[in-house]
Amino acid sequence: MNLSMLFEYLPYALITNFTPGPNNILALNSTKTYGFKRSWKVLLGICLGFTCIMIICGIVCISLKKVSDTYQNIMKYIGTLYILWLAWHIFRSKPNNILENSPKELTFLYGFIAQFINVKVMLYGMVSISTFVLPYTQSALFIFLFILGMSVLGAIAALIWALAGSVFQTFLNKHYKIFNTIMALILIKSAFDIILIK
């Protein structure tokens, strides 16, 4: 990757990672509901699952040289259904009392498995590797470092959203109906954006 391609990649990476999507909204919603301390398992699951998806995307891109249209279409619709389900779940959710008798928080496994139906993450990995890496190098070391960089950036984005949920927990829980409606609408828009991807 030359310097000009790096400058083209960074805005794409920052926008993709830091705009609302399933991971960021899941992270924010968990810390808003349970606090940062009780959300660390789901956050760890999100981060490690994200890294696994980036590794899989790298292997698929190297093996196939191009993304299978059939696979991409199947994952697009599965991911859209997941995002719509998440939007409905967030829209209907109510703030929980952050006490020991409150419902059990989201688990590591939930955050990890959610990555395997998160089309935004898959498309991000496929597009990044096939567009910004493979045309310039197929060096295993460079691809590994690139995947590591994508994973760190994804983790930072999820943690920033989680921190926002934790810091504004009282405010967000007080105005949860408005907040949940806005987050649900953002997710619905994301779902329709994915359907429209050619």
From TrEMBL:
<feature type="transmembrane region" description="Helical">
    <location>
        <begin position="74"/>
        <end position="91"/>
    </location>
</feature>
<feature type="transmembrane region" description="Helical">
    <location>
        <begin position="42"/>
        <end position="62"/>
    </location>
</feature>
<feature type="transmembrane region" description="Helical">
    <location>
        <begin position="111"/>
        <end position="134"/>
    </location>
</feature>
<feature type="transmembrane region" description="Helical">
    <location>
        <begin position="141"/>
        <end position="164"/>
    </location>
</feature>
<protein>
    <recommendedName>
        <fullName>Cysteine/O-acetylserine efflux protein</fullName>
    </recommendedName>
</protein>
<keyword id="KW-1003">Cell membrane</keyword>
<dbReference type="Pfam" id="PF01810">
    <property type="entry name" value="LysE"/>
</dbReference>
<keyword id="KW-0812">Transmembrane</keyword>
<keyword id="KW-1133">Transmembrane helix</keyword>
<keyword id="KW-0472">Membrane</keyword>
<dbReference type="InterPro" id="IPR001123">
    <property type="entry name" value="LeuE-type"/>
</dbReference>
<feature type="transmembrane region" description="Helical">
    <location>
        <begin position="176"/>
        <end position="197"/>
    </location>
</feature>
<dbReference type="GO" id="GO:0033228">
    <property type="term" value="P:cysteine export across plasma membrane"/>
</dbReference>
<dbReference type="GO" id="GO:0015171">
    <property type="term" value="F:amino acid transmembrane transporter activity"/>
</dbReference>
<dbReference type="GO" id="GO:0005886">
    <property type="term" value="C:plasma membrane"/>
</dbReference>
